[in-house]
Amino acid sequence: MNNRRTLLKTSAVAGTAFSILPAWGQAAPSKRVNMAMIGVGRQGTNANMGTFLGMDNVRVVAVCDVDRLRMVHAKKKVDERYGDTACKIFGDFREALELPGLDAVMVSTTDHWHAIIALAAMKKGLHVCCEKAMTRYFDEGRALADMAKKSGVVFRLDSECRSHAYMQKTANLVKNGYIGNITRMEVGVPVEFQKGGGDPAVVPVPEYLDYEMWQGPARLRPYSVDRVHKTNPETGAWMGRPGWLRLQDYCSGMICNWGGHLIDVANFINGTSHTGPVSCEGAGSFDSGGLWDTINAFELQYKYANGVVMDYKIKVPYLRIEGDEGWIQAHWHSEGGLQAHNKEIFRTKFRETDTMVPSRSDKRDFISAITEGTPVMIDAEAGHRVNSQCLLGLATVKAGTRLEWDPKTEKVTNSAKGEAAMKETYHRGEWKLENFI
After folding, report:
1. Do 259 and 392 contact (CB within 8 A), yes or no?
2. How do the residues of the chain divide into helix, strand and coil, expressed in percent and rounded to 5?
3. 140, 160, 325, 345 - which has most CB atoms within 10 Å?
4. What pTM did the predictor assign?
5. Non-local CB neighbours of 272 within 8 Å, separated by 6+ positions
6. Does domain 3-161 correspond to CATH entry 3.40.50.2300?
7. What residues have CB less than 8 Å from 206, skipping those under 6 apart?
């Protein structure tokens, strides 16, 4: 590990500040983080890279993607921001991780790549910000959380939901007792696409896409556009939401994708971020009639050891918290705003003894953890727990029965079929999970 990386790792652990990078741009702050963007499609370029490019104490030094057009498009944006051509490009994440002076990576690939890339990065002493859903499979999440603890680097699950104003307000009011003791929670997530979608037609692989690398650890499948993504051949920009979001080989569907946002906030408020529920029951259905096959409807109920129940469904994105003295419902990217049993609760003047939740943005939270040693809002253990809770719901639907879950041993205790569904996994060839632990 190079000296510079060691200094930033020590800073993150001990909260010590170091002036270790040459000045650039107008602000020239004393602590800067060199970032590599791994995966520069829709989310990776717009939401993630765009935000990091706007931070004075971050330098995007590399972009990596198996789609050459997207990689070149992303590099152009970086070069325009900094006024030079220093940003490196890589088609293989392993080469990007070897870049001298690199401190951290942003993983914005398909879900089935998250764990392997993050594990490889942490083994090299790099800090990791990882898109949700954190992993495709349960065993990947457990391995990732263990590696984050072992390596001592900063790991953050990349969800901005905890930083949203409505969620902040809800958390502050509920955690400080303004609706009494929590009795029930309700979470909704949106529908991904129309039913029966996805064109399964097999077509030649575009010359700009390394499809073998894109598939990586997943099962080998013939190429079709709606299996992967669409790229503008003239600009290299992404075009629409990618089809892989609706294929179980690469993604669990909205049950985990947006569940990673909203159930995380629910667990944070409930004090169960590092544990989880004790049971799940309900039903759902899967997409059919086209290429896509992820779950497209479900109504589930989780129960926690503290007696709280949580209903979870595909509807619109929102979070509802009910207490024995009132309720609050916060909508996110959906109509409804911020509601409560009495709107006067939103005029509450907090007491000096109340504890306010962190109000940093998601990307600032990650960078501050590296440079200042502040705890991240969603660490690897919390990321694994919220993802495994979503996977438990998926396993409940697949098993067709109520599942009892032991959050200490992380096992389904009442159904062999449910345990098998919960622990299903697949890694092909050189991408076996054990090769990266």
Report:
1. no
2. 35, 20, 45
3. 140
4. 0.92
5. 304, 306, 385
6. no
7. 231
